[in-house]
Design goal:
The model has no long low-confidence stretch (mean pLDDT 90). The protein contains seven helices and seven strands. The protein has a five-stranded parallel beta sheet, sandwiched between helices. A two-stranded antiparallel sheet has the order 6-7.
Length: 207
């Protein structure tokens, strides 16, 4: 089955995680990193998950899953490690047209959590469609070792420069070419940075 790659905005959206053990913990962490509004349903929780609840980062309902628990949610993770429970969650989600991931059970997943390399706002996500998470992790490590640590800061400066270019001149093929050119150059924060000088010169020539 062909997967549709997407980077999804979850900030403020209600997401439910069934389970709070080792299987679910990393998924909860990923949802929190995306600023989702997370509710966890589980009778017991690992110390880290309990700490998130105590600090108010998540809502923890300390009980077993019940049908109806996913009502109103945008996305669901079934991570109890008990196949019968996780598949019941997936079945309810399917009926409600809610996206669901039954962790480590690929046939019962609408989406997969990828292995991710991060440098600031740059994210490179790797998926094997559940065939081999170990391979995805290996590739993540290899890519991570090859990317400069300062790439996130460089991207931030490149984004600032892009916004300056967009504000300085209208839509044109020349502007598009300039943005591609700047992506090949070193970008820095000071006014006389060669990339910024190049952007100003292009804007002046376009007037």
């Amino acid at each position: 089955m062909s997967l549709f790659p997407i980077f999804l905005k979850l900030a403020g959206r209600p997401c439910v995680v069934i389970g709070a053990g080792m299987i679910a913990e990393s998924k909860i962490e990923s949802l929190l990193a995306a600023e989702a509004r997370v509710t966890v349903i589980a009778p017991e929780a690992l110390p880290r998950v309990a700490a998130w609840a105590e600090s108010g980062e998540i809502v923890w309902e300390q009980r077993e899953y019940r049908r109806g628990d996913i009502a109103g949610s945008f996305l669901v993770v079934a991570g109890t490690g008990v196949p019968a429970v996780d598949r019941a969650v997936f079945a309810e989600a399917t009926e409600a047209d809610v996206l669901c991931n039954a962790v480590d059970d690929p046939p019962f997943c609408d989406f997969y959590f990828p292995s991710v390399v991060r440098r600031g706002e740059l994210q490179i996500a790797i998926s094997t469609a559940g065939e081999s998470p170990a391979l995805a992790q290996r590739l993540r490590k290899e890519i991570n070792e090859q990317l400069p640590l300062e790439l996130g800061e460089w991207l931030m400066e490149l984004g600032r420069l892009r916004r300056e270019v967009l504000a300085a001149e209208g839509q044109s093929e020349g502007r598009k070419m300039l943005l591609h050119e700047l992506a090949q150059r070193e970008v820095c924060g000071y006014a006389d940075c060669p990339s910024r000088v190049r952007a100003r010169e292009h804007a002046e020539a376009a007037r």
